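User: I'm curious whether this sequence folds into something compact or stays loose and floppy. Could you predict its structure so I can see for myself?
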Amino acid sequence: MTGGRRERTKAANRAAIVAAARDAFGELGFEAAGVRDIVRRTGLASGTFYNYFPDKEAVFRAVVEAAGEEARRRVRTARTGTADAASFVEAGYRAYFEFIVEDPATFAFLRRNIGALGAAGLEREVPLGATELAEDLAALVRRGALPPLDVDYAAHAMVAVGVELGARLAERDPPDVEGATGFATALVLRGMTP
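Assistant: Here's the prediction. I'll summarize afterward.
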């Protein structure tokens, strides 16, 4: 087996375990799901799990990190090229809230594990999103699309609003992307204008 093929197999196995973990945690919840529940969903040998993760907490963090990475990618893409501060804020929130509800497996994972998320990985994901947002806000200030403001505070406040409303959105039946987007956008824009 060549090194490239071995690496592809390892990446595919890890991805299969992460996807199976997301599904198991989404269906059973973090506390009830065990490593066996995860492995059963992969088709891999039971010992394979431990080649990639030491325990279920580690794979839970990997699920959170994968979801966070995808959410940040979608949000940043949505914000890119917006004409003004209002469309920037609205596009970012809409992309985030749509991500939460458009991917049923991730949505089930988030909805079922709201309580476990803070302790297991959001503390790493939130600062990454806030750093990217602060960079983008600083660019808006430089262009004159926003008045001068503390972009660090603004970014952290915006991410906090998104995380909290996203958690609430995940608990609502049916989820209201437009309502959450409108509320978050109005709230943030009022705080950014003099």
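Summary: The chain has a mean pLDDT of 89. The two ends are 63 Å apart (CA to CA).
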